[in-house]
Amino acid sequence: MSAPSLDAFIAYSVSTSTPTVLITSGGTSVPLESNTVRTLENFSTGTRGSSSAELFLKRGYRVIFMHRAGSKLPFLRLIPSPTNVTPELASLIKDCPNPSVKNPISTFTSHLPNLYLLPFTTITSFLTSLESTLKSLSPLSSLSMYYGAAAVSDFYLKNMPEHKIQSTVEGRRINKEDGGGGGKGFKLELDDVPKMLGEVKVWCPGVFLCGFKLETDETILTSKVERSIEKYGLDCVVGNVLSTRYEVCYLYDGGGVEEVRGDVEGGIVEGVVRRHMEYVSREGGGVRLRKEGGGKKERDERIWREMEGWKKGIFWAWESLGPVIGVALVYYIRRRKW
């Protein structure tokens, strides 16, 4: 069975009023030649994006996972392997009896009806795909979310040479690629990548916009986040410092800051989902979260957490006394002479 188109995937979310999140993950590549040999890269492997996708799926969201080709994927990232496991490789090794291989593949497969994989490589393909996907999500309005965990390049080479940049001064002169080095090395002048955060709510009105801000200097993190919220209209920002990003993160929403420690990935998604549901409630959207398995114990615990005090008493009485009442009723019916 072939995978549904993106439009069909989103149409199902619309018809079922299911919250759907577009997660961007991994890093973008910046080519230095039209016939690309060399590129500028960053260190992102997609760990945070893929782990976040798992948590959103478990909370009943449908996920469009826009990822760097070859970066980590939800659940498959857990397979011990010298390279990131792709869906194609997973289909070949799905019958492996080793639980460390079999279980992640089984979990990945079970979530595929609610997971749409959308790969990108270059900064250009990323921006093109981002715009078209957000426009497709617009019918969901407040039920849609943009979760921008990808490490998007800040700079690119606007005027690329057609062929490979030569490694010698003589070669560059032949190709008329002096590069401004005056025969001593090679200089590139990079242009700023257009900031697209300000366009997100234009392409997808009503979307809940969650951005990420990574800094190496902790002293400027809060001020940079606050400026982004004001400039781009973000509803939530995940702020973190490079050296401690797996130990602590901060959730900003324009009204304060929440520190997340311990289970950082779980805390981030929990905080973002809570803010999104509050946003949906304010905007008047109806939500239908998928039930992520769970037996009677999980159901009772969930109901108990969500109940008001007096309702808990009724629920407890029914759950505790219901079986007794049932037995008494059966006994009465059997003993009664009609």
From TrEMBL:
Keywords: Membrane, Transmembrane, Transmembrane helix. Gene3D superfamilies: CoaB-like (3.40.50.10300). The chain crosses the membrane at residues 315-333. GO terms for molecular function: catalytic activity. InterPro entries: CoaB-like_sf. GO terms for biological process: coenzyme A biosynthetic process. It comes from the Eukaryota. The keyword Cytoplasm does not apply. SUPFAM superfamilies: CoaB-like (SSF102645). It comes from Triparma strigata. This is DNA/pantothenate metabolism flavoprotein C-terminal domain-containing protein.
